[in-house]
Amino acid sequence: MTIAEPTLTAGGPALPQERRLVTDIPGPRSVALMERKHGAVAGGVSTTMPVYARAAGGGVVVDVDGNSLIDLGSGIAVTGVGNAHPRVVEAVAAQAALSTHTCFMVTPYEGYITVAEALNRLTPGDHAKRSALFNSGAEAVENAVKIARAHTGKPAVVAFDHAYHGRTNLTMALTAKSMPYKRGFGPFVSEVYRAPVSYPFRDGGMTGTDAARAAISRIETQIGADQLAAVIIEPILGEGGFIVPAEGFLPTLAAWARDNGVVFIADEVQTGFARTGRMFACEHEGVVPDLITTAKGIAGGMPLAAVTGRAEIMDAVHAGGLGGTYGGNPVACAAALAAIDAFENDGLCEAAERIGEIVTRRFGELAASDPRIGDVRGRGAMIAVEFVRPETGEPDAELARRVAAAAHTQGVIVLTCGTYGNVIRFLPPLSIPLELLVEGLDIVATALRDVHTDSAR
Ligand code: PLZ
């Protein structure tokens, strides 16, 4: 079988925005690649779908067999501007033709500074800021902790129940969930402590301020503010299940941190860059973090990450104390500038809000008649559905897994998440055509209905 080449436009693949299945999922070429993977790639690196991508753009991923799949995952919240966005592709090509790497620590270049300026301008708060660039979310988080320690001279860091901050040694310690992220990989670093978070669906409707007071009490009794460099929190806890803390939780925690000389770090790696309908999720409650970590959406799919924060905190580190060979690579910076331009000027916050309304309405209506849907929550283009056993309210991970698997075979890329694995999350590209979004949601809803009828339980 021959597969039609995608038409190449000025910058990227102009793919028909449709779901089109021409083979079973996975098709024969994907099956063959999966066999090669088993022989060549470390077994610890697993894939959500057994389908190999060839091209992607708008709201679709086209696989090696020519199937066009609806993308409700954005490569885990990365391609907010759309995959292979034409202006990103153009910027990448132009920069790559000039230089692919010189190392900012050796012979620096303007793009890095322009990205830092953009981040200083766009992140919450109008105080003086500085930024430093890295390669991945985990690396940004590690550096935020280093900076907070250098500034405060204190050792301890608090992370929260259900948190996800990465897979490196320090960030594994910050991440809450053992399987698959931590099990067997210890020992972990010391001076990382965990506090309870507000989880409205599972904490009996505690108010945000009460939940924050409980966390603060834990911190004060078990650590002490005089030992604590930083608290780090995702404004919406992503991998943990798209948990939106009750109103008041984040502002109360941020105010306590400010009053106690503790650096408040917002990990916006997943929530950042228009994903939640605002440029940053902290804005929904007017929270101004001292430091903010970003990655994922920042560069339209190129690896780039950043720590941005108060100038006096960022500048506490001695010269040469921050860096890395590739951090702020010029091609990644060029991609980021094109992506940031799209986030600011292409109405992507509004697009995220529209997506959120559609997903919330669809699953909110279903929830009214389907008691297996315990909760529908999130903001903007970051909405999740939490599945439960109706009799007990216990998490139903098997249902989430089966619904996702059924959607996958129908050509819809959808991801699960959650500490208990019982959450399906929707993270479409903000540029997805809305008809395609609706079709994808229909398929997930049908999968849910059918799992019901053929369920042995
Ligand atoms: N902080 C809030 O969501 C990455 C992880 C997928 P990296 N989330 C996706 C997986 O299974 O590895 C993430 C995040 C938040 C930090 C990170 C880490 O970002 O770019 O994956 O290092």
How does this structure look, described?
This protein has 457 residues and is α/β, with parallel strands linked by helices. It is built from 13 helices and 17 strands. It has helices spanning 28-40, 74-77, 86-98, 110-122, 137-152, 169-174, 208-222, 249-259, 311-314, 330-345, 348-369, 397-409, 434-454, and strands at residues 7-8, 13-14, 53-57, 60-63, 68-71, 129-134, 156-160, 192-195, 228-233, 263-267, 291-294, 305-310, 373-379, 382-387, 412-413, 415-417, 423-426. Strands 6-12-11-10-9-7-8 form a seven-stranded mixed β-sheet, sandwiched between helices. Strands 3-4-5-15 form a four-stranded mixed β-sheet. Helix 3 runs antiparallel to helix 10 (330-345). The protein starts with 6 loop residues before the first strand and ends with a helix. Residues 8-12 have low confidence and may be disordered. Ligand PLZ binds at residues 76, 136-138, 141, 164-167, 234, 238-239, 267, 269-270, 295.
